[in-house]
Amino acid sequence: MVTNASEVDHYASDFKQLQALNDNNWVSPIRSHAMETFAGIGLPTTRKGNEKWKYTNVAPIARIPFALSSSSNTSIDVIKSVAPWSDSWTNVVFVNGFYRKDLSDQSDEFELTNLAELIEERIPVENLGSLTDISDDGFAALNTSFLQDGIVLKVGKGKTVEFPINVVFFSDGSPSTVAHPRIFVKAGRGSSVSVIENYVGGGGDYSLTNSVSEILVEEDAVVNHYRFLSESEHTYDVGYGRVKLSDNSVFNSRSFFKGANIGRYDLNVLIDGEYASCDLQGLYFTSGDQHMDNFINIDHAKPYGTSNLFYKGILDGKSRAVFGGTVLVRKPAQKTDSVQSDKNLILSADAEVDSKPALFIYADDVKCAHGATAGNVDADTLFYMRSRGIDLETASRLLIYGFAGEVIDKVEIPELRDFLEEAFLTSLPSYKFEF
């Protein structure tokens, strides 16, 4: 039961106006069900019985009466200054959650449509919402209540998309506004595609980005997914990723976070096919008063699956990070091979990380392991570098670079890897390890 009626009330007017625009459309009952769900559960502001939000306080988000954002005339140069970009990619741009056709590319290699167009033409999107359980999560229910625009990407059977599809969600930081981006990706049997999902921008006033991405990977298909979050210190960002794998399919994820006041990424991968695999790696850098929460879950439902979960964090200032990693191995999922690890480099005595990796194993023939570490660099490593004539600040910076670079180096798109190196490595603080 929602504890604060205002959480619902200040969205009610915008919801009614949106529904009136698409009355008797296929999307209307989906929105109505989601709003009814949201009215019942609200946002996860209570502590009791809310384990998955235990270390993240969303009260600052709940207190602000966010109104729906609207598109703006942001120039392409502004977007290129903050987002990864290459003219060889297929670049798709949304501003404040709305598709900008004039700034976006088209391609005949795959089927790419903006959700608003499909709603306008009354064309339902098969499987949209099928991977996201909104029954116990207010933010996901709220996103679905305001289904309005987003991207629908379908890659045909046996098709290999040569160049990445770069989806940029830019926020101009309009005060007290919320955008609800939506992504649906379907990779057909035997296909291969790389998708870059970016959340960038923001401004000097508080705004909210509340996104949901669903990725359906059919038999023998491969999806390489990159996610980059770099918004302003006044932006709240809550994102969901829901992935379903079929037989022999592969999902590779690389997630990077370096900017938001409160950031939350909830990723769930369902391995629903034999011999399917996922490799989930991430890097987060927090400073000042930032808070980043990674809630990453893998559900092994079928046998012979493999998964790797590897996240690294660098914390400075008074920032806080949360890592909740869960691997569930169901009884039928025999011969599962799974490893998960979270490593954190803490640069400030005032920074804090809460790491909680977990395994739930109900099969008896598996190979699983997990671990977590948090701390500073050991004195022997630093002494070794100093003994080679490297000054303290340079040695410290090289060690931090090396810690971050282990994940960045796994990015297989050269232009994106160069962008991330610039974005992360040049923003790391000047620091001297002291013992």
Could you write a compact summary of the structure shown?
This protein is of the alpha/beta class.
What does this structure look like?
- The structure is a single chain.
- This protein is an alpha/beta fold and 435 residues long.
- It folds into two domains: 6-273, no CATH class; 379-435, no CATH class.
- Helices cover 21% and strands 38% of the residues.
- Strands 1, 4, 5, 7, 8, 10, 12, 14, 16, 18 and 20 form an eleven-stranded mixed β-sheet that branches.
- Helix 1 runs antiparallel to helix 2, helix 2 (27-41) packs antiparallel against helix 6 (138-145) and helix 8 (392-408) packs antiparallel against helix 9 (414-425).
- The longest helix is centred in the C-terminal third of the chain and has 17 residues, at 392-408.
- The N and C termini lie far apart (51 Å).
Mean pLDDT: 92
The string of secondary-structure elements, in order, is HHHEHEEEHHEEEEEEEEEEEEEEEEEHHH
Main beta sheet: 11 strands, mixed
How many structural domains? 2
Low-confidence stretches: none
Q: Compute the number of strand runs.
A: 21
- Main structural class: alpha/beta
Strand share of the residues?
A: 35-45%
What is Rg? 21 Å
Give the helix proportion (percent range). 10-25%
Question: Which keywords apply here?
Answer:
alpha/beta, 9 helices, 10-stranded mixed sheet, globular, 11-stranded mixed sheet
